[in-house]
Amino acid sequence: MTQRAYIAEISNYHGKDVKIHGWVYNKTGKGKLLFIMIRDGTGIIQAVIFKNNLKPEIFEACQNLTQESAIIVTGTVSEDQRAKGGYELQANDVEIVHIAEEYPISPKEHGTDFLMDNRHLWLRSSKQHAVLKIRHEIIRAARNYFDNLGFTLIDAPIFTPNACEGTTSLFETDYFDTKAYLTQSGQLYMEAAAMAFGKVYCFGPTFRAEKSKTRRHLTEFWMIEPEVAFCDLNQDMDLAEGMVEYIVTKVLENRQDDLEILERDVSKLENIKRPFPRITYDEAVEFLKAADADFVQGDDFGATDETIISEHFDKPVMITHYPAAVKAFYMKKDPQRPERALCVDMIAPEGYGEIIGGGQREDDYDTLLHDIKKHDLPEHAFQWYLDIRKYGSVPHAGFGLGIERTVAWICGRPHIRETIPFPRTMYRLNP
Amino acid sequence: MTQRAYIAEISNYHGKDVKIHGWVYNKTGKGKLLFIMIRDGTGIIQAVIFKNNLKPEIFEACQNLTQESAIIVTGTVSEDQRAKGGYELQANDVEIVHIAEEYPISPKEHGTDFLMDNRHLWLRSSKQHAVLKIRHEIIRAARNYFDNLGFTLIDAPIFTPNACEGTTSLFETDYFDTKAYLTQSGQLYMEAAAMAFGKVYCFGPTFRAEKSKTRRHLTEFWMIEPEVAFCDLNQDMDLAEGMVEYIVTKVLENRQDDLEILERDVSKLENIKRPFPRITYDEAVEFLKAADADFVQGDDFGATDETIISEHFDKPVMITHYPAAVKAFYMKKDPQRPERALCVDMIAPEGYGEIIGGGQREDDYDTLLHDIKKHDLPEHAFQWYLDIRKYGSVPHAGFGLGIERTVAWICGRPHIRETIPFPRTMYRLNP
Question: How far apart are CA A234 and CA A343, in angstroms?
Fold first, then answer.
């Protein structure tokens, strides 16, 4: 029996007969010749269908193949310099598995709503395909980076009784006789786990019920969150820039084809090498003043501010020492300037915004308790979290990398909705 | 400056001076000698503290160290045949970072509720530590298995508008002006993605609001769900047994120490080699009849039934061809016996129950529409899912592996609550 092959591995079968299982991507030809571009999810190859090489009724049937029809083509793999990938298939048999109805997505322009309503089909398009292949690479690289450094994966819970960063943007659900909230961050749990395992990370979905319509917001997004015991802000930044460099390197190594499909300016990515610039909040504010930006000293940066700041750098920039007032209660204050937090945000270049938020955590019991009270958070709900400061408290730090924003930046896609297979936004819960 | 080292890598520092950052696991000694077992999350090492080698006030302070106090010990790494790991540390300085309050978890027996209430601390105990290290290994192995086979990771959405396997056990949340449900399975989305990428998997948390108090149930648990286009039930089973063999092999290769801590009978795991037995539902029922089990022909198997069946095998057993009536609407029926589904459950040996459920999916539009109506499911909500059968429908199959049950089996832990860092059950939402 002829062996089944995937297009991605076709070069292993040069001169041999194989079966390709896939879908009709495009069809041209006339007279005795048909050219069918087949996609099988791992690549695209052209099948040359010459009338004299097949049974007449099969050639006849092939002429009626519609876009996205499912077929199994048996043929000989031959080199072809002109073909993308370098190979084509000289068909000697075609099995028609399913004739597709008229496919709704065509090369003509479609509206965004139409494409999003048909996300389950839009995934088959080459650009969407490329974005999600790169997403996979980014996730794999991030995990491998931490695994290689001896981190332990500790999955954080999704259901939580606590609100980590404020209650206004929480999704709530009935949980038997009580209420549960969907997590906004695994960080608090990672802090506990770091005291048990030294170096940990979680990777999972997080949720924000923000009524935001910007192109940077999803209600459901994925984060990787490392946390390290005996770690200060500077070591935390070393870890963050090392991870981002590693991720970009792996995408450049393994997904050149996909970057090409997306017409990404690869030189911009090749430039992403350590060290990354590190500036303080005050220095960042100077850039905004110089640009005459509509910004109030002491505020957090908005998307426009981030873009202005990022324009000064051709690498991700790390901004530290924000006013403690705009950061979460668990941030450690700078002993030199207690009104400032030992925090760091990493802003991607080219205007893609914040991709990392993190910093050193408060490790003193009394200070943390004071901050919890100051933020009107329920003390009893944070008792377990306070425990971490009772039993062998140590300086510790970590951060969260937003996967979708990282994908948007690396792929050069302006809208975050394309960076996740099935995006969820304020207005979108389908398909 | 003396280099920081982690205990897991201590053999690289033989004869050298290092700093170990960690916590006091145990302390013994008298007179001029103190022995402190230090854990740093990557391992445990004994520090030998000889009075004459340290400043007097430091030796004094060390005598007052409590369990879980945080310390940084500087010393020379020396070989010691008697030590676990083969090395100990001849201390010449100790920095005390934090003196722990009296640690609530002691070697004496604690009740389960107490340990679960203190899960954030219990994680530091050696058995819990071992279980979660093995969990990490299992997850990494499962991902690598699919990555190595050319699968694409496609994260499924958590918020869904549809109920995939019935509505009674769904968690619900307000989603702006509508309702959303938390996913019970990414499968339907994986089917769409398989038509775009050929071979895909998702890995994420899934949710069931089951009012179940058994030791096998969590409200929040993780699944890895592969789905393959142009794949039938037998190929699906090949994939499943290949994955399970790969996972067990990797745990045996990389986590011997942890299996030892758990006193796991490793010979039972070494036996997990392909091929696994494949039996039909009818054959499984014969085992139950022979055991005089309280079982009604035509029903699904319960936990007790699974245990009885598994006792006949020393490997995971795959059971196929259940009555279609006890399986989900999307299962393809056996063309030979339409009242049976082309499905497979994999039951772990040693009574650990079902770890995999899967099968071939209905790929005919009209049959699927009929099944959706028969199950009283809202047709409009499944229109996108039906689309997969309109545009190049192909035979396809997949399965879901429950991570926690797999961890329970491989670790030999009877209760599933220990197999996830922060378990969520009907009665437990804390910490």
Answer: 10
B173, B195, B420 ranked by CB distance to A171: nearest = B173
Q: B3-98, superfamily in CATH? A: Nucleic acid-binding proteins (2.40.50.140)
- Give the Cα separation of A343 and A333 in Å (integer): 9
Residue to mutate among A45, A149, A197, with most B CBs inside 10 A, is A197
Q: With contact defined as beta carbons under 8 Å apart, do B130 and B261 qualify?
A: yes
Pairing of strands A396-402, A353-360: antiparallel
Instruction: Give mean pLDDT, residues B57-72.
Output: 97
Contact B69/A40, CB-based, under 8 Å?
Answer: no
Q: Which DSSP state fits B164? A: S
> What residue ranges do the domains of chain A occupy?
3-98, 117-419
Residues 6+ away with beta carbon under 8 Å from B359: B233, B236, B320, B327, B331, B332, B341, B342, B343, B344, B397, B399
Residue from the list A133, A422, A426 with its beta carbon closest to the beta carbon of B176: A426
Structure tokens at A50: 């010459």
Token pair 């308790």: residue: A369
How many Å lie between the alpha carbon of B312 and the closest alpha carbon of chain A? 35
Band of pLDDT at residue A261, cut at 50, 70 and 90: very high
User: Do the beta carbons of residue B194 and residue B396 sit within 8 Å?
Assistant: yes
Domain B117-419 sits in which CATH superfamily? Answer: Bira Bifunctional Protein; Domain 2 (3.30.930.10)
Q: CA of A393: which chain B residue's CA is closest?
A: B98
pLDDT tens-digit series, residues A200-244: 999 999 999 988 776 678 999 999 999 999 999 999 999 999 999
Residue pointed to by tokens 């990494």: B140
Which among A70, A174, A392 has the least Cβ separation from residue B23? Answer: A392
